[in-house]
């Protein structure tokens, strides 16, 4: 489900009378995220989603390197990639969860499945 679809679903559930705690369980979101989504109207949500599509990410300069590692070692974990970024590229400005998300998105986009 896309972010925009999730925001719309959160608003629909709220209009149906669900409490924030119930919405968090149904949508698998944190309470702070649900409150943030409820503060946005549809137009703001559209703008926000478009900004997210075009922003640069901290790991973008290392994308080619990460893809080459994934091509060579399809079973490579995000944790190992994080370690290699620090060791081989002297890059440690992101948390491991950021690397995990980035690697997961690259795997989906380039169809590199983990063995």
Molecular structure report:
This protein is an all-alpha fold and 115 residues long. The chain folds into 2 domains: 3-54, Arc Repressor Mutant, subunit A, CATH 1.10.10; 60-110. The chain is built from 7 helices and no strands. Helix 1 runs antiparallel to helix 4 (42-54) and helix 2 packs across helix 3 (31-39). The longest helix has 15 residues, at 96-110. This is HTH IS21-type domain-containing protein. Residues 5-70 form the HTH IS21-type domain. InterPro entries: ATPase_terminase-su_N, Homeodomain-like_sf, HTH_IS21_transposase_type. It comes from Pontibacillus chungwhensis.
Put the structure in a nutshell.
The chain has helices at 3-15, 20-27, 31-39, 42-54, 63-72, 78-89, 96-110. With 115 residues, the protein is mainly alpha-helical.
**CATH-defined fold name of the largest domain:** Arc Repressor Mutant, subunit A
Task: Flag low-confidence runs.
Answer: none
**Number of beta strands:** 0
Give the termini separation.
25 Å
Q: How many domains in all?
A: 2
Helicity, as a percent range: 55-70%
Give the biggest sheet: none
Q: Report the sheet-strand fraction.
A: under 5%
Text of the CATH class of the largest domain: Mainly Alpha
Average predicted confidence as pLDDT: 87
Helix/strand structural class:
mainly alpha
Q: How many helix segments?
A: 7
CATH architecture type of the largest domain: Orthogonal Bundle
Principal-axis shape equals: elongated
Order of helices and strands: HHHHHHH
Using only C-alpha atoms, the radius of gyration works out to 18 Å
InterPro entries: ATPase_terminase-su_N (IPR010332), Homeodomain-like_sf (IPR009057), HTH_IS21_transposase_type (IPR017894)
Protein name: HTH IS21-type domain-containing protein
Domain HTH IS21-type: 5-70
Pfam family, one: Terminase_5
């Amino acid at each position: 489900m896309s972010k925009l679809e999730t925001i719309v679903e959160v608003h629909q559930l709220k209009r149906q009378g669900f409490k924030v705690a119930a919405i968090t369980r149904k949508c698998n979101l944190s309470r702070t995220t649900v409150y943030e989504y409820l503060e946005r109207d549809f137009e703001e949500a559209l703008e926000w989603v478009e900004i997210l599509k075009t922003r640069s990410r901290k790991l973008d300069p290392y994308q080619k390197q990460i893809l080459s590692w994934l091509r060579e070692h399809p079973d490579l974990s995000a944790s190992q990639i994080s370690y290699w970024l620090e060791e081989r590229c002297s890059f440690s400005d992101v948390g491991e969860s950021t690397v995990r998300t980035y690697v997961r998105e690259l795997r989906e986009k380039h169809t590199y499945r983990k063995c």
